[in-house]
């Protein structure tokens, strides 16, 4: 019996950590494959909806052109006598069309393919959406049907009314059911296979270490293996995830082909029918097909409007091609006769583009690459938590390091919740603004971001003292709960001003969690351990900055910004639950005096403080907030790219920042001037924004964000360090709390002003001009800082020699 007990005691330390590592492996595998299935399904859904809208655009355009051609200068809409026949003809163009209506500016239906609808008033949502769209196409979706419309204008460019094509969604729902049926077994088997493979490679890594000394148990071997093989564990788990993603993506391509090709073929039939009808009318006027003029230009324009099509070929009665655009595909296209089928005047062949499908799958692969990068950081985060909190894996049971590792979990979750929203907050705010707002849209969109930043900037000093009085764990709970409520309210906001109020509440929650977590680090570390403690603190925020924006962009693209806010709220609630695992008696050892106006006036009179604050800290925060929080999310979407592309660009910034920060710290330790790191970092940050004045497109945005991450990584850490050196006398005179409190306050005010400044510049200079103008300001500040900081370079050189 005693031998059994000893055996159990030996086995427990070995198997318990292994179970936790297996849990991490399974979680990461399920995250990767689950996100892959999610992305593939919603990408298919998006492609399906896009194909339907593009298909319905054909009869919408045909009706609009027919009606506008029948209206003489200034004639009212009711005078278009040939409209009923036109509507009846276009109604037959697609079996999914239910009605085609034309309503005037008051919303009253003047003509309709359904005679019972004439004289009725269209729903208010149609009128509001049509008015907001202006000259652009508009679209509304209900559970079982959708409507697509376009404005009717006369020769004086006055809006007379709108064409509206209502169509059923039964075919789309059936295609989605088929796609779910195809993806479900792929996702299930992919998840199981990836999880099993991940567990096998974890077991393999743990059992490839050196054998323990004689007399040591399996527990010692497992603990040592984990402590020394974390990098190999991360690589092994990610290998399993990558293989799972590859297999799922390969299997999904066939599901895309089977389920999307019929929809694209329907689109080709509709386009072919529109082309054949136009040609039949021309030939019916006695013009021979070879004598038709401008046909290829017309076909080229049709193909430009419908990128899903590879080629359009018009043949005569003998099958000889007379007009053709595009490149012929290997597979034959859809054949549509010109004229009556029993007396065809020729035919139109329309081919579906395989390149279109490949480009769509390439976008999925880009999102999967984002998922993989997020999986890298998620795996590292989970493994660091396990190795820091499990006493069998070389962590002391009640050490400060264990408590900090436990604190990092709720901090990471809460910061992830806020970072998740970064990619879609500006676009969501623009949609809430409405068409009749009195404030400029470019400025108004920045208001929710500014309100959030302002609350964070002004709230941290009083919240720090409050959190120390009531207890840090309790303060973090309140902050997470406030953030949760704010995110839920943001998801339900009905207009911009209500949204601003909820974002202010989110800022209050953010500031509370931030200062409480910061106080937690101070309370549970000694002076010698504090640098490592703050590394954990900053690391959690930076990992959230890497993972949040791209995932938020993907969510906003596929399920909408409101659902994105809902997911963020759920993560904030999970952070609230994780805070409850912290010890109750987590209070600060000492209270930092609050910053007073007298302190602020005194430190503002010191030249080194002003140089570092106004020429380095404020410009760095200004370019960060204006680029990352405002310009990039809005600009990328304005180029026609999805919100996920903005999230990927923000991820590039965060990844470069995470990589460069420790490298910059090592450069400073080796004697590289912190003045040069700060000034050089500011100049590098500005290069990308200046480049956007010369090159437009999504690619240059990624380059600009990479340069911003590189520049911020070089300069951020050096600013605080240089401040403590250059202002050592002021710190002795006023105290570090007053000096750094003033520094942080002014720095955060620069953060808050960035979106408003960017919005004002967009109004006058456009997006590229706003990028370049802010970058020019930062570049000038960087050069001035380098030129005026000679005395600070001498201070650092003396410190290095000492």
Task: Kindly describe this structure.
This protein is of the alpha+beta class and 802 residues long. Among the domains are: 396-594, MFS general substrate transporter like domains (Growth Hormone, Chain: A, Up-down Bundle), CATH 1.20.1250.20; 596-802, Growth Hormone, Chain: A. The protein has 24 helices and 9 strands. It has helices at residues 2-70, 83-91, 124-133, 170-206, 218-228, 230-284, 295-305, 354-389, 400-420, 425-433, 441-444, 447-470, 472-492, 496-523, 530-559, 561-579, 597-604, 607-638, 643-669, 674-691, 698-726, 728-734, 736-788, 790-801; strands spanning 97-104, 109-112, 138-141, 145-153, 159-168, 309-315, 321-326, 334-337, 347-352. The protein has a 5-stranded antiparallel β-sheet with strand order 2-1-5-4-3, with helices on both faces. Strands 7-6-9-8 form a 4-stranded antiparallel β-sheet. Helix 1 runs parallel beside helix 6 (230-284), helix 9 (400-420) packs parallel to helix 15 (530-559) and helix 22 (728-734) packs antiparallel against helix 23. It is globular, with a radius of gyration of 31 Å. This is MFS transporter. Pfam families: MFS_1. It is found in: Cell membrane.
């Amino acid at each position: 019996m005693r031998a059994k007990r000893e055996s159990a005691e030996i086995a427990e330390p070995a198997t318990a950590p292994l179970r936790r590592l297996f849990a991490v492996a399974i979680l990461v595998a399920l995250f990767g494959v689950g996100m892959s299935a999610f992305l593939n399904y919603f990408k298919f859904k998006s492609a399906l909806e896009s194909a339907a809208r593009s298909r319905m655009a054909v009869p919408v355009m045909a009706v609009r052109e027919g009606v506008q051609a029948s209206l003489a200068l200034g004639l009212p809409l009711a005078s278009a006598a040939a409209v009923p026949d036109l509507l009846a003809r276009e109604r037959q163009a697609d079996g999914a069309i239910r009605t085609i209506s034309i309503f005037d500016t008051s919303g009253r239906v003047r003509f309709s393919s359904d005679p019972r609808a004439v004289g009725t008033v269209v729903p208010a949502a149609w009128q509001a959406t049509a008015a907001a769209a202006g000259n652009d196409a508009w679209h509304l979706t209900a559970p079982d049907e959708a409507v697509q419309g376009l404005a009717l204008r006369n020769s004086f460019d006055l809006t007379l009314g709108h064409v509206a094509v209502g169509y059923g969604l039964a075919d789309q729902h059936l295609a989605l059911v088929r796609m779910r049926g195809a993806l479900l077994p792929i996702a299930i088997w992919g998840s199981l296979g990836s999880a099993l493979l991940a567990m096998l490679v974890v077991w393999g890594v743990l059992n490839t270490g050196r054998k323990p000394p004689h007399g040591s148990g399996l527990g010692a071997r497992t603990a040592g293996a984990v402590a020394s093989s974390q990098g190999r564990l991360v690589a092994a788990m990610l290998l399993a995830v990558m293989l799972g993603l590859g297999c799922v993506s390969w299997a999904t391509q066939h599901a895309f082909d089977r389920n999307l090709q019929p929809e694209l073929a329907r689109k080709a039939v509709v386009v072919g029918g529109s082309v054949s009808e136009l040609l039949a009318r021309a030939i019916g006027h006695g013009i021979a097909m070879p004598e038709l003029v401008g046909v290829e230009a017309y076909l080229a324009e049709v193909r430009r409007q419908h990128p899903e099509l590879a080629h359009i070929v018009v043949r005569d009665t003998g099958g000889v091609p007379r007009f053709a655009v595009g490149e012929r595909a290997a597979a034959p296209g859809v054949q549509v006769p010109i004229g009556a089928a029993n007396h065809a005047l020729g035919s139109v062949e329309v081919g579906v583009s395989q390149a279109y499908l490949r480009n769509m799958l390439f976008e999925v692969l880009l999102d999967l690459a984002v998922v993989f990068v997020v999986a890298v950081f998620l795996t590292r985060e989970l493994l660091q938590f396990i190795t820091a909190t499990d006493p069998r894996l070389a962590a002391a049971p009640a050490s400060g390091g264990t408590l900090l590792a436990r604190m990092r979990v709720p901090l990471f979750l809460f910061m992830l919740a806020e970072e998740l929203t970064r990619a879609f907050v500006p676009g969501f705010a623009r949609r809430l603004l409405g068409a009749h707002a009195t404030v400029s849209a470019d400025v108004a969109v920045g208001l929710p971001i500014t309100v959030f930043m302002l609350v964070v900037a002004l709230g941290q000093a009083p919240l720090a003292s409050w959190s120390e009085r009531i207890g840090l764990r309790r303060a973090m709970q309140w902050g997470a709960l406030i953030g949760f409520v704010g995110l839920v309210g943001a998801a339900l906001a009905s207009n911009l001003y209500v949204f601003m109020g909820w974002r202010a509440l989110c800022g209050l929650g953010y500031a509370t969690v931030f200062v409480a977590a910061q106080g937690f680090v101070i309370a549970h570390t000694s002076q010698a351990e504090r640098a490592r403690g703050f590394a954990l603190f900053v690391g959690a925020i930076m990992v959230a900055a890497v993972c949040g924006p791209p995932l938020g962009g993907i969510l906003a693209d596929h399920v909408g910004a409101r659902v994105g806010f809902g997911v963020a709220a759920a993560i904030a609630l999970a952070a609230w639950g994780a805070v409850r695992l912290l010890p109750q008696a987590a209070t600060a050892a000492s209270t930092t005096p609050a910053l007073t106006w007298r302190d602020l006036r005194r430190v503002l009179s010191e030249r080194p403080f002003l140089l570092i604050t106004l020429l380095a800290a404020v410009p760095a925060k200004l370019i960060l907030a204006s680029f990352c929080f405002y310009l990039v999310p809005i600009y990328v979407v304005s180029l026609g790219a999805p919100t996920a592309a903005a999230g990927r660009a923000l991820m590039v910034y965060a990844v470069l920042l995470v990589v460069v920060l420790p490298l910059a710290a090592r450069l400073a330790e080796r004697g590289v001037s912190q003045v040069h790191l700060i000034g050089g970092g500011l100049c590098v940050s500005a290069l990308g924004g200046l480049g956007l004045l010369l090159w437009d497109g999504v690619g240059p945005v990624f380059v600009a964000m990479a340069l911003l991450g590189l520049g911020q990584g070089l300069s951020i850490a050096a600013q605080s360090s240089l401040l403590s050196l250059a202002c050592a006398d002021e710190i002795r005179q006023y105290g570090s709390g007053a000096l750094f409190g003033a520094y942080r306050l002014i720095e955060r005010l620069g953060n808050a002003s960035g979106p408003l400044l960017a919005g004002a510049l967009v109004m006058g200079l456009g997006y590229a001009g706003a990028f370049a103008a802010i970058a020019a300001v930062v570049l000038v500040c960087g050069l001035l800082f380098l030129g005026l900081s000679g005395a600070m370079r001498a201070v650092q050189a003396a410190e290095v020699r000492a």
